[in-house]
Amino acid sequence: MSSDTIAPEVGDERRDPTAPWPILRIRGLGVSFGGFQALTDVDFDARKGEVHFLIGPNGAGKTTLVDIITGLTRPTTGSVLFDDVELVGHKEHRIVHLGVGRSFQAATVFEALSVEENLDIAASFRLPLRRLLRQRRGTRPEVAEALEVTGLAPYADRPAGALAHGQKQWLEIGMLLTQKPRLLLLDEPVAGMSPDERTRTGELVRYVARDCTVLVVEHDMDFMRRFADRVTVLHEGKVLKADATVAEVQADPVVQEVYIGRAKDDRNSVSRGAAGDEEEQA
Ligand SMILES: Nc1ncnc2c1ncn2[C@@H]1O[C@H](COP(=O)(O)OP(=O)(O)O)[C@@H](O)[C@H]1O
Ligand SMILES: [Mg+2]
């Protein structure tokens, strides 16, 4: 049914070999839930290999946007181009196979299985069954790498359910990494984490971005300041600022107003010296 989606203009950026290529191009995206317009005319790009933050107050439409990119929600209008392929209209599993990985706000791991078993299952996901059975002996390279980069190697044999909150989030990211995504979408990966866990998550995200584009949905402005390459700001379902630098976002009076207007409630602000900054000291 993607016949009513906008025909994308592809190619301009690719003609300049030095320009980072927008691997994700979102155009005219809109969705309404029973008359409530959750997203309206959303346009933005994410370039290959960047850590792109999608920020905005609660209810801005961030998770809805991630749901659309990953095929969980179908938009009413618009287009999501990933590596020149239209994602709108594809099923979730097809989008995963195209190289798009996604974490949820609550970590989704198999609690009763060990850390390594969780990674092993995730890594098997793309293999034909007969290869899967043949590979049962030893730790696969992609599993070993995920154990290493997430810092979970010492916990490989521990049940995932026994991990600390932060470690479960890293395990979920590790599981996604074994599937070798080219675009990783992380929905509020540092929610509920200690300052130290936040820093380690940021470092993990930067590591992942060496060969993957990462779209981080975040509510935590301090985390955004420390780890973002580019930022898109959503507010009430509309783009307030697209593909901006951290400095541009911090200097933008409208963005300031949106956050400061809510700072009393949620202790979040884009400006320096705001409540979130104390977390940096730990
Ligand atoms: N399936 C749904 N049905 C009805 N309303 C929804 C649905 N999903 C999200 N919404 C509404 O859309 C708005 C944006 O939600 P969401 O994308 O979760 O925001 P964010 O992730 O930025 O906090 C909210 O007002 C939310 O209540
Ligand atoms: Mg959300």
UniProtKB/TrEMBL annotation:
Coiled-coil features, chain-numbered ranges: none
Domain ABC transporter, residue spans: 24-261
Keywords: ATP-binding, Nucleotide-binding, Transport
A single MF term (Gene Ontology): ATP binding
Protein name (record): Urea ABC transporter ATP-binding protein UrtD
Organism (species): Patulibacter brassicae
Phylogenetic classification of the source organism: Bacteria, Bacillati, Actinomycetota, Thermoleophilia, Solirubrobacterales
Gene symbol of the encoding locus: urtD
